[in-house]
Amino acid sequence: MTSEATLQKEPATDAEATRPGPRYLPNVDIIETKNELLLVADLPGVAAGEIDIEFEDGQLSVSAPAKPRQSEGTRYLVREYGVGDFHRTFRVSEQIDASRIAAEFNDGVLTLHLPKVEAVKPRKISVQG
Amino acid sequence: MVRWRPNGRHPFVQLRSDFDRLMGDLLSGTAAPVARAVRAFPAVNVWEEGEQLFAEAELPGTKKEDLEISVTGNELTIRGRRGSSVAEGTSFHRQERGVGEFSRSLRLPYDVDAEQVEATLRDGVLLLKLPKAASAKPRKIQVQSGPST
User: Fold this and answer.
1) ipTM of the complex
2) In this model, does residue B42 exceed pLDDT 80?
3) Which A residues in the span 32-91 are in contact with B, Cβ-Cβ below 8 Å?
4) Fewer CB within 10 Å, N or C, chain B?
């Protein structure tokens, strides 16, 4: 098994869905900078307006419906991936200023900016002497 | 060439997620008839409608100018690259999105008309329309009536 497999879509398994159909875990990068946490998620085939982002009690969830792009009866000659809604939840331990969360969506990639609460930013304390 | 490199998961987490994915694929019916230990990138779906083949691949974050598609006979090649989401040296908590160059070649069931191939990239999904080459189409042969003797 090569590690290339990580790049494929994984079915979401965290909670049961209320409607049938496969659900997938988007691949993400999470980056921390001085002022914010940055979450970058692959959501191919999703419409920007349909992405649902929720942040509550330190739990961040990203859901995005991805409708089938081919008709139901399509017979695939090669079928290496499935299409279905994306869903993933994260527990964020950093203090986030929820009112300033911002999101962009380009080329099937969601970028979420989660600004840290001011007090959490490292402060330089100069030593008096 | 920079290899497509997936990043930083603990081998056990990797194993578990591979297992989950395999189970998910089996349950949802998307599993290939023969298990593929190695999956090439990008994953591709191919289907046929009338005299056209369609191929689709998910390439989030790849710009159309970073994509090169070529067709020779019945061989389709998709090459491209995806840049990193941030500058080098940033501290990642998670890094699952692969970066770098990728190349995938695929043998189609018949020759396609390379001149007529259409490609569209929308919201990270590449769709290719691949019309059947004239040489691959069934030919109607007119039956000539022979001279009556």
Assistant:
1) 0.80
2) yes
3) 32-33, 37-38, 40, 42-48, 69-70, 74-82, 84
4) C
